[in-house]
Design goal:
alpha/beta; Rossmann fold; 5-stranded parallel beta sheet; 4-stranded antiparallel beta sheet; binds adenosine-5'-triphosphate
Length: about 210
């Protein structure tokens, strides 16, 4: 892909829930090697904005473009990966089956399934049913999906939730590598990011009215 042309542009977005304006007039541009950190108090609309950016829900106003065209085109969904609250994993399938399923629907990434499981410290859990994993292990599995597929844009909703200290450091180092390699991340987090050398834009949704 031509990295020069890669750009996520949100223009004048608004989101209304039950007649309440969560945010309006929200615009930003995200380029390769940048992280956009969405901040704001509980209920300010961070998850709602991520779901709009994923194309799961339409904005009440405004437009989102990927590389100059509206996001409802197939290329955006191939370029983007979302890890949300529900972890996006099927609990009745094994760890290996879940990763094989993710791989079947995407371009292969930098790591094999075996390497990714090793990286997120789930080696040896291949045949374990997801329903038998702890909350932190489920989160590690959902993050392993990012490593086995090739997606320039990661959209992450509270990626540190349920992770222990070592897990948080691991994810931070994977995120750093992703952006240093030309990737982009939009994320929410109530946890302070330790990625000091990185180009981080911050938007506080509590103030976007
Ligand atoms: N499906 C829905 N239908 C109606 N209202 C909803 C729906 N989902 C969320 N909301 C409302 O929208 C508001 C914003 O929710 P959202 O989950 O986007 O906030 P958030 O900033 O991510 O919060 P938190 O920090 O608690 O995760 C809340 O008041 C919530 O009740």
């Amino acid at each position: 892909m031509d990295k020069q042309a890669v750009l996520l542009r949100a223009s004048n977005l608004a989101c209304i829930r039950d007649d309440r304006v969560l945010f309006s007039g929200l615009s930003f541009i995200l380029k390769p090697q940048q992280i956009l950190l969405l901040e704001g108090k509980n209920g300010s609309g961070k998850t709602s904005l991520l779901r709009i950016l994923c194309g799961f829900r339409e904005a009440d106003e405004g437009e989102i473009q990927w590389c100059g065209t509206p996001i409802d085109n197939s290329r955006y969904h191939a370029d983007m990966a979302y890890v949300g609250h529900m972890d996006g994993v099927k609990k009745e399938l094994s760890v290996l089956e879940n990763l094989k399923m993710s791989l079947a629907m995407a371009r292969p990434g930098r790591f094999t399934i075996e390497q990714a499981l090793d990286k997120v410290h789930l080696a040896g859990y291949d045949d374990t049913l997801v329903q038998a994993l702890s909350a932190g292990q489920k989160r590690r599995l959902s993050l392993a999906r990012l490593l086995i597929t090739d997606n320039i844009l990661w959209i992450l909703d509270e990626p540190f939730t349920s992770l222990d200290r070592q897990g948080i450091q691991l994810i931070e180092s994977l995120m750093l590598k992703h952006v240093n390699d030309g990737g982009m991340i939009v994320m929410t987090s109530h946890h302070d990011l330790a990625l000091h050398a990185t180009d981080i834009q911050r938007i506080d949704l509590s103030t976007c009215h």
